[in-house]
Design a protein that fits this description.
Layout lengths: L1 E10 L2 E11 L4 E5 L6 H8 L7 E6 L2 E2 L4 H7 E4 L11 H11 L4 H14 L14 H14 L4 E5 L7 H16 L3 E5 L3 H7 L2 E6 L2 E6 L1 H7 L7 H8 L3 H13 L1
Parallel strand pairs: 3-8, 3-9, 6-7, 7-8
Antiparallel strand pairs: 1-2, 1-4, 4-5, 9-10
Helix pairs in contact: 3-4, 4-5
């Protein structure tokens, strides 16, 4: 469902993403992890057609991003790390704007939106978006993304700004969607979320994919059968020694 071949993005002399290869199946929840600045958000922006790669190819459901961008846009939904919405519109006006843009059936789509709004306790659709908190915007963006029932949903730090109840409901909804064939590509710094949710995990560092597989695969590959994902992540990205030095410092204190 998602295929990237030698995906590369340069900003001047900086190589933000370096020859990345991905092959993600239909119905899979794929966790894309990495330290700050590793290239996660840049990768999502390329996979969703927001920016173009410097090199490489992208295919979504077999469609070539270079040739079939508009058709791909109809298949995917995106929840960015910073919700970008028209602040002079009310929530419901923004929802109807999205319905118009994607030419969705109004009655059916609003019914789905209302169900999601009830689940996430979105009771502020009549208020102006400019008055929303980050968490309120995030919940509405999630509801809008899911109401479209996309073939692929991309989520960049989706639980940031969500309360514990909403984050838990989101995890259940994404699992149900994946079980019904939707592909989920998500980044998160909350490694416990990735450990519980993701079918496979890819770890990127300095623009390069340095590890990939199921949690069991990663534990076997790195000889850490009893490790948590957090411990594996720190070892794989080279931050394990930093953690030990910090713990040692705290012990001395």
């Amino acid at each position: 469902m998602i295929e990237a071949r030698n995906l590369t993005r340069k900003f001047g002399t900086l190589v933000a993403v370096d020859r990345l290869n991905l092959n993600i199946a239909s119905g899979e929840i794929y966790g894309f992890l990495g330290p700050n600045g590793a290239g996660k958000t840049t990768t999502i922006k390329m996979l969703t057609g927001i920016i173009s790669p410097s090199l490489g190819e992208i295919f979504i459901d077999g469609l070539d991003m270079q040739k079939d961008l508009m058709e791909i846009k109809r298949l995917i939904s995106v929840v960015p790390d910073e919700p970008k919405m028209y602040e002079n519109l009310k929530g419901l006006e923004f929802v109807k704007f999205i319905i118009d843009v994607y030419r969705l059936p109004v009655k059916e789509t609003l019914k789905k939106l209302n169900n999601l709004a009830e689940a996430f306790k979105i009771d502020y659709l009549g208020k102006y978006i400019g008055d929303y908190s980050h968490g309120m915007k995030q919940k509405l963006m999630v509801a809008i993304a899911l109401m479209r029932e996309p073939s692929v949903v991309f989520l960049d730090e989706p639980t940031v700004g969500l309360d514990a109840s909403s984050a838990g409901k989101l995890r259940i909804l994404l699992r149900n969607m994946a079980d019904n064939g939707t592909t989920v590509f998500m980044t998160t710094h909350v490694l416990e979320v990735a450990e519980k949710m993701c079918d496979r995990i890819g770890i990127i560092d300095s623009g390069r994919l340095i590890a990939e597989g199921t949690l069991s695969d990663l534990k076997e590959s790195f000889g850490r059968a009893e490790s948590s994902l957090e411990e594996l992540f720190l070892d794989i990205t080279g931050d394990g020694e930093t953690k030990l030095s910090i713990e040692g410092f705290e012990g001395e204190a």
